[in-house]
Amino acid sequence: MITSLTLLILSLAALYIGAGWLVQGSSALALKAKISPLVIGLTIVAFGTSAPELVVSLNATLDGQGDIAIGNIVGSNIFNIGVILGVSATICPLQVKTRLLRIDIPVMLVATILFTILFWNGTLGRTEGLSFLAGIIIYTLFSLFYSRKHGEGPSLELEEQPKHWAIDTLAIVGGLVVLVFASRLLVDNAVSIAKELGVSEAVIGLTVVAAGTSLPELATSIVAASRHKTDIAIGNIVGSNLFNLLAIAGSCSLIHPIEAKNVNYIDLLAMSAISVLLLPLVKSGQKISRTEGLVLILLYVIYMFWLLRDTI
């Protein structure tokens, strides 16, 4: 048990480091390609910080551990809004740009509801996976098109990228290698701990694995909030949740149909409810206040108490 817990902690640390390299390298390359900071935040940074979820869920799917694969996706989305946005808002009220309010958050809500409906029977097939992947491709292309059409370009501050592109590429490759090995270590030891504690793989996926793989999002949003770059803090979460639902669930179920009967309708409804709640929160003055941030944290705590009620 102690050995498994130690390896689990080490794997989480490695995931955090690997995701950092991936985000740093990919963001630098994107800036060299003259892609705007907002689009980078919504796509490249958000997708990069979701890389741990992707690799962990892919490995779990290939190992036939559907409860961990789906539990990781659902749990991460709940954690992202309840904890990360909640904590970020308590640090600094999160001002929301019009684009996020009119386009990106509604798209995330549609993806959340669609995922909930299609996964209601506890399975995801290749057809659903293909539709999810098509959705994330369309969203990414739209973001790039929208950015160029509305004249969004990199700021002068961000344009200064003295590093050679080869160094950025090396950071991306190194980050991916670390992510692959760390995710395998995480899944294996999470399953081991679940068996020793007598809890289901779904619960482990929804809690420990989900929170652990969300560490890059947590660090990114908290740093952004503390520097008053609040649009990045919330944009990172919206983009990450979209990536989790469309790219991760899509790629996993396309590679191999997923069955996760222990991730039940309560978990799906909790994810949908806290996602839907985000829209009226940001519409109230186009920001998430400190009080509203505390409410999000409280909702997550209540969900955790319900989820772990049999083990407490």
From TrEMBL:
Transmembrane segments annotated in the record for this chain: 6-23, 35-56, 68-91, 103-123, 129-146, 167-187, 237-258, 264-281, 293-309
Keyword Iron annotated: no
InterPro entries in UniProt: K/Na/Ca-exchanger, NaCa_Exmemb, NCX_ion-bd_dom_sf
Topology with respect to the bilayer: Multi-pass membrane protein
Compartment(s) where it occurs, according to its Swiss-Prot or TrEMBL record: Membrane
Keyword annotations from UniProtKB, A to Z: Membrane, Transmembrane, Transmembrane helix
Gene3D superfamilies: NCX, central ion-binding region
Domain Sodium/calcium exchanger membrane region, residue spans: 4-144, 169-308
Classification via NCBIfam families: calcium/sodium antiporter (TIGR00367)
PANTHER family: INNER MEMBRANE PROTEIN YRBG, SODIUM/POTASSIUM/CALCIUM EXCHANGER
Protein name in UniProt: Calcium/sodium antiporter
Lineage: Bacteria, Pseudomonadati, Bacteroidota, Bacteroidia, Bacteroidales
